[in-house]
Amino acid sequence: MTRYADQGRSLRLDPESQSGGYFRHAVYNHWDPYEDVPESLLEQDRQRLMATDRDAVSETAFDDLRQSLALFGAGEEAVTEDLAPLMLALDDIDDQMFVSSQIYEEAKHTQFFDRYWRDVIDPVAGHHGFEVTNPTDERYFMPAYEALFDGTEAAMHRLLEPGEDTPENRVRAYCHYHLTVESVLAQTGYYGLTNSLSDSNVDITQPEAPDLELDGLVEGISYIRSDEGRHVGFGMHKVQQHLAEDGVDEQVVRSTLQELMPHVAGIVSYSDELVDPVPLVEYARDKLTRRIEIITNADAEIPDVEELVRLDDGNGATPADD
Fold first, then answer.
1. Binning pLDDT at 50, 70 and 90, where does residue 298 land?
2. Which of 40, 136, 140, 246 gets the most CB atoms within 10 Å of its CB?
C-alpha cells in the first residue's frame, strides 16, 4: 500500500477531533501582524515614550521594558524552531496540521516583537540619548531563561532519537513547551506587561514606576494571547490523553512542572524596576496549580480557548472575543 492510501480512514481529516477544532479556530481567527496592529498605534506608543520626560522614564526603567521585550521575542523565535521535532514525531494528520499552524503563529509573534523593537524601542532610545541596544544582547538573558529554553529544546529533540519517542517523553515535551513556556511563563509575562502598560483594574506596578499606556504593544500582545489559548489547550489535551489512554503516571507531569517552576520564578522576578515581582510569582504558581488539576483529571474538560488566555485582570477581552 502506498503512503497515500489509508484504509482505516474514509476521509483524510477528522474535523470533530480536538486538534481539528483548534485548527479551524486558528483559520477563523487569523490575524496579520503587519496590518491588524496598525502603524498608527506604534506611532502613538513611540510618541508617548518620546514625550515622557527623561526624569520620569529613566534609562534603567526603559531598559527594563526592553529586557521584557527581548525575552518575549527570543522566546517566540526559540519555540518556532523547537516545535519542528514534535510535528515530525506526530503521526495523526489532524495533530500535524494543528502544530503546523502553531509554528506559523509563533513565527508571527516573533515578527511582531521584532517590528516593535525596530519601530518603537530603537527610535525612543535614540531620542532620549539612551544606549541603543540589540534585542539579542546577552545582557537581557538570565541563567534561568537559558536553562528553561535549553531544556525545552532538549525535550523536543529527544523525540527524534531512536527509541525515545515514548508517551512519557511526549508528556515531558508538552510539559516543557505548552504547559510551562506558553501556559505559565508567557501568560505571567503578559499579565505583568498588560497590567502595567494599560488602563487595568489590577495595579502591580511599583509606586515610583512611570505611568505608561502603550496601546500598540498591548494590542499586539492581545492578538498573541488569542493564538496561545489554542496552543495551551492542545498541549493540555494531549497530556490528558496520554495519561488516560497510555497509562503515563501523572507524577511525570507533576515532577516535570515542579522541576521547571524555579526557572519561571527566576525569570519573572528578574527585575523590580517597573513591576512588583511578588504577585507575578504568585500568579505563575496559581496558573501552574490550576493546569495540573485539570490535566490529571481524566473527566475534566479543557477550558475554552478564550478562558485559557484570560489574564484575571478584570478586563479579559481578547480580539478573539470580539
1. confident
2. 140
